[in-house]
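Q: Give me the 3D complex with zinc ion.
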Amino acid sequence: MNWNRKDLIGLEYLSAAEIEHILAATDSFKQVTTRSIKKVPTLRGKTVANLFFEPSTRTSASFELAAKRLSCDVLTLNIATSSVKKGETLVDTARNIEAMEVDTLIVRHGAAGAPAMLSRAVKACVINAGDGWHEHPTQGLLDMYTLRSRLGDIKGLRVSIIGDIAHSRVARSNIWGLTKLGAQVTVCAPPVLLPVGIEKFGVKITTDLDEAIAGADAINVLRMQFERDCAQAFPSRTEYFRKYGVTQERLQKAKHDIVVMHPGPMNRGIEMSSEVADGPNSVILEQVTNGVAVRMAVIYLTATAKEASL
Amino acid sequence: MKYLIKNGRCIDPANNLDAVADLLLSDGKIENIGKKIPSPKGAQTIDAQGMIVAPGFVDMHVHLRTPGREDVETLESGSRAALKGGYTSVLMMPNTDPAVDTPEMARGLKEQAHKESVVHAYVSGAVTKGRQGAQLTDIAGLKAAGALAVTDDGCCVADDGIFRKALRESARAGLLLIDHCEDSKISGKGVMNESFMSTKLGMRGMPRQAEYEMVRRDIEYARGLDALVHIAHVSCKESCDLIRKAKKAGVRVTAEAAPHHFTLTDEACANYDTRTKMNPPLRADYDVKAIKEALADGTLDAIATDHAPHGLHDKYVEFDAASFGVIGLETALSISVMELVNKGVLDWPRLIELLSSAPAKILGIPAGTLSKGAPADVTVLDPKAELLYTAEEVASRSKNSPFIDWKLTGLAMEVFVSGKRLVSGGQLV
Ligand SMILES: [Zn+2]
Ligand SMILES: [Zn+2]
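A: Here is the predicted complex, encoded as structure tokens.
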């Protein structure tokens, strides 16, 4: 197939074939990242700007490395929302950066829809690096890539997503991507952290962690942000860990080769125990490694689609 | 100047009239209505064959942003938008900057409107000082200054005690109390309807309970005090059900709905287009259906636009950050024709009633009728005329309409305000 989108806003908007296409492209970039010389000249002369309106160390670093390994020039801007309040609108900020002949904008923003809005406002490629509770498509892709490299075909896999579904863009991107590729997805959360209408996503729902783990081929454990989103829902961290923390004892009842994922940053002892995080089922660091390759694929595909449309 | 409007289908719900007739306007009054009126000397004749001749429309809920935000709407631009939509009277909400919360301000604005507005622009006052919800305004004084209603619109009168006092005070003063029903403890920082869509889009939802639990409260207080309350912009089925039941039980409650709420659902928010962001928000399919039924069966009394202009810098931003509200004066008639009459929800006389005589009666203004001797506020509309409503077409100073680029059917072709012909051939004069 031909990739012809200049932007990546969310996995909701992609077809199964398009997702497969990105994952296939990731394979070749993965090879690059494991060589001793980790750089290809593919996008030499292109400029990529990381526009992070919300702080993030890892996603920003991952995108930066991905762009550099494609030989792009990279500009990383951490834009505190306080300076945005002084009057410059989001679109103005983006257009100003674009005016410096930037080819790709990688956007992380606290407001859902911000990258979608920018994709209509600029000619540059726009890649969503996480927008509010909406989507984090490259995280969804790297999770699927990791799953596939561990377990083979995603079709028919049973994947459980555990934690704060309501406030998680990672959950949404995973649900869209996995269901499109034919996985059976279960979401597991305390009732207050299950968002309205979640049943319409074509997922199974449970509030019981053991049920989510039983028979699952993989679990994806979400980060809890007690201060920000969950204060009313779950006042006590220990209480959360007792009911929803993934521990070795709980995994005893699971498939022995169950894959354990976490999008990071992880709160050890809240979402999962250290034994699980560092144990044989965990692929958490592999996810991080794959993240760079997935992002190389996305930067590459969108940039060449834009080129072709000119 | 005299005008003879010939052979139109004259619909005057206040007089139970729906017949092909001629209408003679003279010296700002309706001089005659009937078959084959001979043309008086010097009268201009207008052929209205195939058209509907109706009382000028009355919009009991508009924000004309004066004083304070004349950059997004003025009395002049807002009233021109009204005219274009067939409206000859509007009630201005008091959530201006500053709020209209004293008799002096109400009087001043009334005088300004008299000079600057091209339609009858009536004034309403705030229920509480600065619309802060804490201290009642001088409601009797506002009435004496010419205000037609009190409301904290934009906000609900949230405090039960204050609301109860306000209801008693407005009943005593004989002034209409309009409530924007929203329990902000429930709606919180929501930006759209709470639903599958808000979950999909990752946006904070405004649960429907925020509206209907407040409607329920307002009805209970109206029942208890035997006082009249008017519910603004009803957006959900449950509110319709509560109002229907209350009316049957004899509670003195009236209510309005806005065209966007009986046309669009929260699906329209899918692209994060901020022209679909308003409060109350667009809801579900079954709410649209319920509002239509409620307009047809008399549960809802009036169509009101909640015309809320916002400039680009308030709207062309992240959905979360954008102001609530859409303009509606220019599209209400067409949208109502398309959604209500052409889809068989209700008939022409009922639509004309919802747009003119019913709101006129609620407000107690001399409008909404074609009776002999009434002010010559008349709208002649072509039910089949079409218009592509582009951004360039917009007469309002702001262009935040969810109906931009829609093909509209049913347009005001001639509009008379106090006998002056201000729209002719569908164009503002
Ligand atoms: Zn309101
Ligand atoms: Zn309003």
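A quick observation: Chain B touches chain A at residues 194-203, 205, 271-272, 313, 316-321 (CB under 8 Å).
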